[in-house]
Design goal:
Elements lengths: L1 E2 H10 L27 H16 L6 E6 L5 H7 L9 E6 L3 H13 L6 E4 L7 E8 L8 E5 L4 E8 L16 H4 L8 E7 L2 H10 L8 E4 L1 H13 E10 L1 E2 L2 H5 L3 H4 E5 L2 E2 L11 E4 L1 E2 L8 E4 H7 L2 H4 L1 H10 L5 H16 L9 E7 L1
Parallel strand pairs: 2-3, 2-5, 3-4, 5-10, 11-15
Antiparallel strand pairs: 1-7, 6-7, 6-9, 7-8, 10-17, 12-13, 12-14, 16-17
Helix pairs in contact: 2-3, 12-13
């Protein structure tokens, strides 16, 4: 039997885990899509941010950019293709835990002729450094503990392999629907077991979501907190910039069904039960930003993109499309593709509603 965070870590990164077996992001043919896979516009916005930050920090050389959860290097290579002011000073560190993605990244870096400026490693490097630490949709993917409020206190979710001979569990009286609250053991599934939460975990849950009704559930995102602290400690002078879906306060999650904020993805389709067929789907969670170290400035992704100039980056494409939309040329169709990418990145009902958190050090 494992705690939920241990189960999630094994389901994603174990020997038969989702990422180890080849789960990956991509706009087409992947299991889920993230901003860098839509095209190069997101990377251009990051590149502009890096150029301005390099200047604000006094034009350091080297200017170190560390990307957590870098995958196969898509964002890295696109950013390096678009930085201007800091191009000669930038040194890029890709951090990726999954061996096959790390290997692919190294091969792509070599093919692009960027081996002198880029290194790929499996964990955050040692500091101190001057620069920027980036993470796009990383924190939601770090394993978290899962707690439930009962009539008498907080319980913690544990997971064990299901016994196929077991009867189907019954929904707990007074707490939502069966699919939200009880995992149904099926072939290849696991099942949920509730145990009294340790005192420290119960105290944290109560502090984050005080006075919630029995049946409420909350994630304890301790690994995300630790990752942010480690990233901040790397920086002698610089910025930590993260992009993720989430909420300002844990209490907001406690008011919603677990199925709304604990997500699974397979072949770009949303799943429901994280215990179903472990290793075959991504498992993610809305980030509760009140659990992370204080001091961050929060904005929506749509607002951040506007602030870094996405409208000016797409102005020429917008004008070209308006002139040629009735009889579009190949260039006009390319302009339309760029405008569609910008719309997706800033969609208030999609990626535009993600939170961008920036911590400033020194």
């Amino acid at each position: 039997m494992q705690r939920f965070d241990e189960f999630m870590d094994e389901a994603l990164y174990g020997a038969s885990g989702f990422y180890v077996r080849g789960g990956r992001p991509a706009a087409r043919g992947g299991d889920f899509a993230t901003s860098p896979e839509l095209g190069t516009l997101f990377a251009r916005c990051i590149a502009g941010y890096l150029d301005r930050t390099w200047d604000e920090l006094g034009q350091p050389d080297p200017f170190v950019v560390v990307e957590g959860g870098a995958g196969r290097g898509t964002l890295c290579l696109d950013v390096l293709a678009h930085v201007v002011a800091c191009r000669d000073a930038v040194r890029y560190v890709m951090v990726e835990r999954v061996d096959w993605q790390l290997g692919d990244a190294l091969a792509r870096i070599a093919d692009a002729g960027e081996s002198e400026r880029v290194v790929a490693v499996s964990d955050l490097p040692a500091g101190p450094l001057v620069g920027v630490v980036l993470a796009n949709e990383l924190l939601d993917n770090l394993p978290f503990r899962l707690l439930k409020r009962s009539e008498t206190g907080w319980q913690e979710v544990h997971v064990e392999d299901a016994d196929p001979a077991m009867d189907r569990p019954r929904a707990e009286e007074g707490h939502g629907t069966l699919e939200h609250d009880v995992a149904l053991p099926t072939a290849g599934s696991a099942r949920e077991v509730l145990r009294d939460a340790p005192a420290d975990a119960a105290a944290m849950a109560e502090a984050m979501a005080p006075g919630v009704a029995p049946g409420a559930r909350v994630p304890l995102q301790l690994k995300a907190t630790v990752w942010v602290r480690r990233a901040l400690r790397l920086l002698e002078h610089g910025r930590l910039l993260t992009f993720d879906y989430g909420v300002r306060r844990t209490a907001e999650l406690a008011q919603r069904p677990q199925s709304e904020w604990l997500r699974t993805y397979r072949s770009q389709r949303r799943g429901h039960d994280p215990l179903d067929s472990p290793g075959t789907a991504d498992i993610t969670c809305d980030v509760a930003f009140d659990q992370l170290p204080p001091g961050a400035t929060l904005s929506t992704q749509a607002g951040w993109l506007a602030a870094v100039g996405i409208d000016s980056m797409t102005a020429d494409a917008r004008a070209l499309w308006q002139r040629s939309r009735s009889n579009p040329t190949a260039d006009a169709l390319a302009a339309r593709t760029l405008l569609d990418e910008a719309a997706a990145l800033a969609d208030p009902d999609g990626m535009g509603a993600f939170w961008v958190a920036e911590w400033r050090v020194g």
